[in-house]
Every structure is written in structure tokens, then in C-alpha cells.
Amino acid sequence: MEEDKLKTLVTESRNPRSAALDTESTMGMLRIMNKEDRMVAEAVEKVLPQVAETVDEIVKRMKKGGRLFYIGAGTSGRIGYVDASECPPTFMTSPSQVQAIMAGGEEAFHQAKENAEDSEEEGMRDIEEATPDEKDVVIGITASGRTPYPIGALKKASEKGAYTVALACNPDSEISTYADCSIEVVVGPEVLTGSTRLKAATSHKMILNMISTSVMVQLGKVYENLMVDVHASNYKLRRRAESILKAITDISEEEAASLMANANYEVKTAIMMKKADLSYKEAKEVLKTYEGDLRKAEDSMLH
User: Looking at the domain covering 1-219, what would its CATH class be?
Assistant: First the structure.
């Protein structure tokens, strides 16, 4: 019965546009894949209202100290890990604020554990260990929409009061029945039949990019389109921090380098020090008053 259900899934069906893939030239294969990939952005556009709903719920909860969890198996789990791991260096978030949980644990990130996805109980156990509550959001990621591991996780997360989101690539997916919000981005059959690491995974990566970026913008971690909360932990990022400061305050490279050093390479602090003529400590206090929102802090001092 389960096998029959799998056969009816869009993600498992054959793509007539790539039926002769093995006879194509290199350029022919690439053109087919490129053409199929163009459909992904169009499919994502259709689910933007559900993505927006998810973003708003995350922002509301994070403002109360909540967290975001991505949970999935295989490629779906890896995509969650990639997005979560980029949040601390990009937005100076705590590693606990955006977390990824994967079937089979971190070891499965490097080496596939295909059977790890088949247990709802494992998904329940893994999310329960993270102690989710009503302030948190849990996003279950599964291309097929019927993977037991994230389904179990969403069931348990709902029991604990968390807001739950299903991210799948099939319509009327099973996981959606256990979610407060359902994002079903239907990208069609894969070029390589059933290989959801292709279009399905690309669509999920695009959506997670949108979610994490939009959330962090609304939490005041972006000014204009600049990463003012970037964690300047290496040479490249320190230069980027100086470049951001220069762009916002219109100062020389030399002054930017000096000011950034005096601000402990905290871009928002350096901006407030320059624009409002504050000491490091004073700038930190003003930003703290406005919960790190640079635009609000700036408006309070300059208008």
C-alpha cells in the first residue's frame, strides 16, 4: 500500500522532458537541467503567501525569545543544517536561535543513512530533546511529504505547543495534516526520476533562504540591504564590516578601520558612535534600549 502511494507522488513520477537523458550530449543534458531549474522560482512564487505567514510567526515568537528548528532527513536535513549554520556568522545570532536537526544525527550530514528517515519515533525523540514550547517554530522538511521522521517531529512539537510548518514538494502531502502552516512547493518531476536533491532541494533551499533572511531583517539585523550584525571573525569579514561602515557613514577607509577597531568590530555600534558622536559604551546602551534595532536607535538620537 505504501509503495502504491509512492508511485502516485509527483516527486516520484517520470519527467517526459528528460526521458532520453542518457542519449544527450553534455550540453544537451545541461540545457535540460537548466530549463527545468527555471521552473523552480515560479513554483516558489506560488507559495509566497505561506512563506510570509511562516516568517511572521517566527518573528513574533523570536521577539519573545523563541527559536526556529529545521528538521528533516537526507538532503532535506542537510539543507536545514546549511541555513542554520549560516545564521551566526551572517546575523550574529546565538547558535541556539536557529537550529537544525537531522535523522541519524550530524554523522548523517557527511554520510547518508537512508533508513534513518523511516522512524516517526526517532523524529519525536529528537525534537523532544530540544524541548520546544509555544515560543518556538518547528519546520519539517520533506520533498515527498510522507517521510516518517519529520512527521513524527511535527506531531511531538505540536503536543508541546510549538508552531509547526510543513515544507514539501507534493500537493496534499501527509505531513501537511500535522502542521499549522503548509508550504507545498510543487516543482514537478525531477530530471533524474525520484532524485529530489535536484529541483525539490533547490526549492527548499530558496525558501529557507527567504525565511531566515526575512526574519533577521525584521529583527533589526539588517540596515538598508547591509549585514550590520555580521560576525567579523576573519580578515574577509572584518574588511566587509569596514566596507559596510563606510557605505553608511561616508567616511574614509582609514577612519572606518580605526572606528571598527574601537567598536570591537561591531558594525552597529560603530555606526552609532559615528552618527551620534557617542562613546562605545554609550552606543551599546542606546542599541540595547532599542533591542539592537539600528534604525530605531538612530531615529531616537538624530530626529
Answer: alpha beta
